[in-house]
Design brief:
The chain is α/β, with parallel strands linked by helices. It is built from 19 helices and 23 strands. The strands form 7 sheets. Strands 14-13-5-2-1-19-15 form a 7-stranded parallel β-sheet. Strands 20-21-22-23 form a 4-stranded antiparallel β-sheet, with helices on one face. Strands 6-12-11 form a 3-stranded antiparallel β-sheet, with no helix packed on it. It starts with 5 loop residues before the first strand and ends in a 5-residue tail after the last strand.
Length: 555
Amino acid sequence: MRQGAMLNLYPDSLGANLSDGVDVLAWPEFKDAFQSIYLLPSVFNSDIDRGYSIISYDLAETRAKKEDFDKLKELEFDMLFDFILNHLSVLSPEFRDILKNGENSKYIDFFIDWNKFWEGCGEKNEDGIIVPDPVKYGGSMRRRNGLSTLMVRYPDGQEVPYWNTFFQKVHYPEVDEFDLLDLVGCKYDIACNLAERINSEIKAGKTPRTLDWSGYEEYKEAGINYMESRRRYLGQMDVNIKCPLVWEWFDKVMGQLAELGTSLIRLDAVFSLLKEPGKQFSPTGSEAIALLDRIEKMANSYGMDILPECHVPYHIGLHRKQWEMGMPCYDYYLPAILIDAMDTGESQWVYKWAKECADEGVRVINMLGCHDGIPLSDPRGALPDDRVDALEERLVTRGGRRKYVHGDKTKEVYQMDIAYYSAMECNDDRMTLARATQIFMPSKPQIWYQDLLAGANDLEIFERVLDADNREINRHNYSLEEIRENLARPVVKEQLDLLRFRNTHPAFTEDANITVEQPDEHTLILIWENASGWAKFEGDYQKFTYKITHSGEEK
């Protein structure tokens, strides 16, 4: 794995589409700043969750074209893509085949029929969905409050709940009087009044069965059936890894990603694939390791490596297990550790984490910000709990928005949605010190585009889009004019200079010897050295200053 920096972005983050973004990356200001591009999955045919609900791994034509990737190859960028293994969109050809053919679909076992999975493990509720025994349905299998289901309708009218771990939307189209004429026996005035009531209450968030049918009771069941027959869905439907067709699909997707020039694939939500009634799977357990091993062999056959994505607290030790398997791992600890260091002026926890990585002789992929929020569960153990709790409170005062386990405000905050520049209190010295530290950590640096452009919390998005996901606070799409304006800012220029230094100085190689020192409680020293040269970082987290010296001239 090459050790230069990786730019992380959506295809429409820098300009209107990837073509604009590729042109931007060819500007002189970006010369030698990046070796790799990590392109998020909205580049593919997808619907909700900003690309993480994949319809197919064909390119989204409004966002990217094959020629864009040819240009990226000419610019000699390595590529990284997400492979969302756990789920596919309800609009995917595979799930649409089920909606069309019901139990006669060849893909009937491709996704997880909730009631079949939990048969014998609970009782059905009034909606016909099995509510599993709490002992068998544990927290690690859940990502939101309530049951992880989406009820879909087969052509014969049968209602079937499917496993849907992440996001969903259910839509009932508006009706008019002509839609209801047959239902009410061609009584036009009744059809008009009933259509008005239905549309008003559905708009208010009611479902066909919960809306007010008073005065129209004789049409209720027929009306409910008619509306449910027109129900439309968006959702991320969990796939069944016990189905051979799923593994054929895995192989097909890897081939598609390889054709686009990727050398590394990020396995999104990979451990969510492991499901069995009554069993909680550890990401360091034998089943998880066997799953990664099988996927890794498949990826290696296409000349690609894998980067498993999993959020677990530091003390679980998943990072060590992945190192032992020879896989890179994500550093979900550094973002919070660095903010804590800046806020307290103390370098001890940055020192501790850097020294562990250096002494073990391993490399991680680190970050400051990313397309998700700043992790708060992951760093527990790498950073004491009381410091994480205090950090959470400070980030809220800086505009951060809490994300709770299962969406339940009585549970733990696992993430803070906030721009990293805002987390740094929009202080340029803090931001550049954080970037300088990042590029000297034993790692391959991953750079979020909004951090690079020192973008603060994007609050305007919540005025334009009332139901916008809180993560959009850190996902601003920059116009070409905005990019030009931000490239003139000293905080952006300095970051690009640091990234150029990281990518071009000969000291930063995978086999470099890395020394970590803490001269006093406020400072940190990181040194990279090999036969070709050396580079030294000295940072002061109380004064927000740093100094870099190297085997060339002083910087």
